[in-house]
Amino acid sequence: MSVHSSATVKRITTHTLQEMKQRGEKISMLTAYDYSMAKIVDAAGMDIILVGDSASNVMAGHETTLPITLDQMIYHASAVVRAVKRSFIVVDIPFGNYQGNSSEALRSAIRIMKESGAHAVKVEGGSEIKESVSRILSAGVPVMGHLGLTPQSIYKFGTYTVRAKEEAEANKLLEDAKILEQCGCFAIVLEKIPASLAKKVAESVSIPVIGIGAGPHVDGQVLVMHDMLGITQEFKPRFLRQYADLQSVMMDAFQQYISDVKRKDFPSEKESY
Length: 273
Ligand code: KIV
Known about the structure:
alpha/beta; 13% strand; 8 strands; binds 3-methyl-2-oxobutanoic acid; TIM Barrel; 11 helices; 8-stranded parallel barrel
């Protein structure tokens, strides 16, 4: 059942999200990359839809998030925007389109906002990308930060294991969260870090902190749609709760269809003109 009728939809904004943190209401966030899925996610009542650069993995079949381009992200984001009436839509700026050059960061963010109609952008990193974050914010574009296991840096990490277990990395992460808040970010994603550290971050900043593999003491949770639906079966980290087994459901449907075609059972007379 839809949680809203098209006439009376109250859109989620950065302000709504801030209020949710203040009153202790958890924020729900999920990825989506296309019109049909985004329509269902929005109607279900998701607070934030992330057009993640995980599209590089689950939509395009790349091993990492690095290959996806700005044009491809805008294509995915535009489709999501056309479907959504209520959710707040955040779009990842892809690898190579914001690091090290704040003018390029601003250009990338403006292209995403102008060409897709999304509501905010997300970038990975802390102090290293401070200038880019500030420059994007100076144009009035809301920015979501992303710290911890930042997939665009996978070749630097060399592994997908939990980040910031050591004191030095944990201290830097906490400092980075404060820097992102001071810059004016409206929220921060924390990926795959100890729950105790995530709790400390969520208590140390006034903006919403959304976790993925960061435990329960944060202001909201995000998952990748294909993982939580059980479409991707090969990726099962400890933090992932699988809410459906769509791979089996789809496999059954496809096999039934193949069988019906081969047996000349489909189409029937009723299904013909
Ligand atoms: O791209 C993505 O899906 C993400 C989430 C893992 C937070 O950044």
